[in-house]
Amino acid sequence: MHRIFLLALLAVTAPGVLRAQTARRAHRSAPHPAADSITLIADAYAHRLDSLSRAAQTPADDSDDVLENPYYFPLFAGNTLYDAQLHTALGSFSGEQTEVSGAVSRALLDIYGHRPDLVSRVLPIAAVSKSEKTAVKRDVTPAPVVAPKAPAAAPNVRTWTDDAALNIKVERPNFWTFKGNFSLQFMQYYVTENWYKGGEDHNSLLASLNAEANYDNKDKVTFSNKLEMRLGFQSSQSDTQHEYKTNADQIRLTNKLGLQAAKRWYYTAMLQSWTQFYPGYHANDPQVYSDFMSPFESVLSFGMDYKYKQGAFEVSATLSPMAADFKYVDRLALAGRNGIDVGKHSRWNLGSTVTVNTRWELMKGLLWTSRFYAFTSYSRVQAEWENTIALKVNKYLSTKIFLYPRFDDGVKRKPGQSFLQFNEYLSVGLDLGF
Q: Are residues 344 and 216 in the same domain?
């Protein structure tokens, strides 16, 4: 097929080349004036056509000699129909055409008209502009067949209507914390003869329960509640009046409401109330020295509370310059013994209080807890300091030492006795925290 293209090209261009050579020979033989610029351009053009004619007549070989002129590209690009030549022939192609491009177009049109069976594909090519820089310089490839783009799938969006059932659960923060401790222990007990609740040295069984419910809304308000119950029984061979009697007996409830004033300071209102479970006796003495609600004591105080915590050490100190102490006895016979006028069940005292609660884990398994309480009405003083040292043996067993000095100059005493009292015991047994 390439030979057909080449023959068509030679048929079109040969007459023009012969005329140009004849004119050039006549021009050389005739005398003429000195060549000017127009003559030089015409000679260069004729030489170019002569070179093209010789190149077309030279048989093709496998050498590297290729036609680099882009105008001849359509003749050797394969069996392709270019619409640019059709537009040129029909007069719809704008722009000036060179003689070479016109010859190429005529050769292609001859093939399109006489041998359409040789054309296997159709490809448009842009018209050649005046500048050779815009000539086609890349291989012609078939136009790819692009499938139509499938429509995008609709997004899977769940819709909500007012009729849809909503199951929204909103959990409010829980500002309450709870903790407690229960112990059941055997103990060795020592008490002075003037102990205000009576008692004697002995070995006994002690049960205690401590429970706390504390509120802290993390926004200045705190409310702490602590219940302490302790009850111990003893049997003494020297006591012929009682089969058994109590040696540790206490019910105490502490309520404290705080409003934060500074980083560690709180405005505080505190209520402390305490009494006991069973009647208290001395050995071989039928007289009752204390009983449930005899006495019952309650102290309401207002002041400032200082809280500090660093690692395993924490302390809460409440200073209350305004305090009201109320004491009540259900047994009138015990009024004088508890600083109440004879024949009366109760009395009021105004004064101030100091309460300090300390908790310090000295090392793993060794814990010291302390409560110091003092009340003064500026005419009498009552102070007590409870200390408990607990040595944890394992998860369920512990050893406890309880030291309890107490001072109260508002009660009756025997001649020669001191207002200072002391209570101590050592116990070993079950100890559970929750």
A: yes
Spans of the chain, pLDDT less than 70? 1-101, 120-166, 188-189, 197, 199-202, 237
What's the confidence (pLDDT) of residue 260?
A: 95
pLDDT confidence of residue 165: 61
Taking Cα atoms as reference points, which of 35, 230, 210, 9 lies closest to residue 109?
Answer: 9
> How does DSSP assign 198-259, residue by residue?
---SEEEEEEEEEEEEEEE-SSSEEEEEEEEEEEEEE--TT-SS-S-EEEEEEEEEEEEEEE
Asked if residue 68 lies in contact with residue 132, where contact means CB atoms within 8 angstroms, the answer is no
CA–CA separation, 224 vs 209, rounded Å?
Answer: 17
> Are both 201 and 281 inside the same structural domain?
yes
Residue 323 is part of which domain span? Answer: 176-433
**183: phi then psi, degrees, rounded to nearest 5:** -140, 145
Strands (E), 62-175: 80-81, 121-122
As a whole number of angstroms, the distance between CA 423 and CA 413 comes to 17
Q: Is the pTM of this model over 0.85?
A: no
Secondary structure letter of residue 56 according to DSSP: H
- Tell me, what amino acid is at 419? F
pLDDT score recorded for residue 427: 87
Structural domain includes residue 151: no
